[in-house]
Design a protein that fits this description.
single chain, alpha/beta, 21 strands
Length: 536
Amino acid sequence: IHFYKRKITGLVSVFLCFSLGMEVFELVLSSSVGAAVALILFLYFTFVKKRKVAHDNLEVLIIGAGISGINIAKRLNDIGLKNYKVLEEGSGLGGTWFWNKYPGCACDIPAVLYSFSWHYNPAWTKKFPEADEIQEYMEDAANTHKITPHIQFNVKVVKCAWNEEESKWKVETSDGATYEANVLVNATGLLHQPIFPKFEGEEVFKGVKMHTARWDRNIDLKGKKVGVIGTGCSGVQVLPALVEDCRQVVLFQRSPAWVFPKGDHANESSRKSRLFGSLRDWILRKRLHYDGDWQWQKLTTKEKWYSAGDQTMEIIRGVMKSIVQDPDIREKIIPKYGATVKRITFSDDYLQAFNKENFKLVTDNIQRLTEDGVETKNGENVELDALVYATGFDCIKSAMPFDIIGRNGQSLETMWGKSPRAYKGICVPKMPNYFIMFGPSTVNDRMFMSECSSAFIADAIHKLSKSGKASLVVKDALYAEYNAKLKDAMANKTYNETAGGYYEDGEGFNWLLYPFPLFYYKWQTSSAREGEFDWN
């Protein structure tokens, strides 16, 4: 009964948050009684009774100190489990925002959504903050909530193996150190293993070569001739910044990107108190979560009464063509694949950069690199001082950045092959006490999904600590059933087709996007039920 009461309460909370508009919110706060009611509702739905572990009897090892690692660490603090470590390969926390420092690097999700629900920030300078500001925010969150002391930096994990006799994970690092823990959480994320395309003549090119994910800020490209390879999210961001400073920027475009207007702007300083600012942020966050998800469902669902993909993309096609002035270039900027087949990009200045005098578009494929630039397949030689790889990430390698060996010597790499799968994106059979953050089929609202996953994992750890058992592992039948339902749901989505990019696995299947509404994942992960696992 208690389990279903919590479910119903959660759905009521979602309904209230979704239906309460900001106009009503402002009206309610205009009276002292209304403000008191709003505050009571806020406290009731936000601060539930914390579930403490019976004893601090488990050692937990978290790998990765990005959004996912910080989220699960906060949840462990909430349940009173302090015996955990976070191993981070980099010299600082932040994950994606630590590694990506290229010009123009910013979030394409509004800050109010791309922030922890448990760490309000009233001081975002822009609607879409840049990389340094996001990393500073994450550092502040980790420091404020006493997570930073648990992080060990410059530690690269190379292997994790389950010891059945001791019911512990043994973790080996590149410097020869070893760690042991009852529970292992893989929070390395999906965007940290950069892809470097291979070209003939790479060794002879005398200019600078840099990947956007490993940008060297000590290199000055002002006044240089720079080539950019890639039209994904990083390419869309870095190109306008380079056009502003470089003598010439040449974009080598294999396929164009769908570019949606971003609508970025500077934020006004808030005059509201921190309490009511936090309450406003909470309500706005809830509204944007579910309203944004509804728009996403309309855009990506095929042949339903609410489907709006064709109409939306016709509008976007017209907007894109209206921006580019050159008629020859204009015909080359519209993708031949459908919306969401690859990740949509957002920008207010990418296509505008195509109108600059120092911009050049090359759509012929690269044949080879030469000493002073690039030779295309049609024989054109493009002189360059630097070449920027905005070629994204290998998400499958990112999901398995080290060897993971489970029960009876089962390798996760062998189990997955080229098609990663997980139960709720979190658990995998034959991998006891092993959890994944930002796992397969969980790409949607980044922070929302991460907080849902961390809630599920923390509840599973809480139940394990009180059970007297040594391990838990998801049931094979539930794992198979869950992934079969995912595949069925994908059949009705526009992104069921793929056109390369990191959405696609080795079997041509979109293994990253979550096909159901957000509130359903909230429901799925609100608790870890004992019946979902085999206990030992």
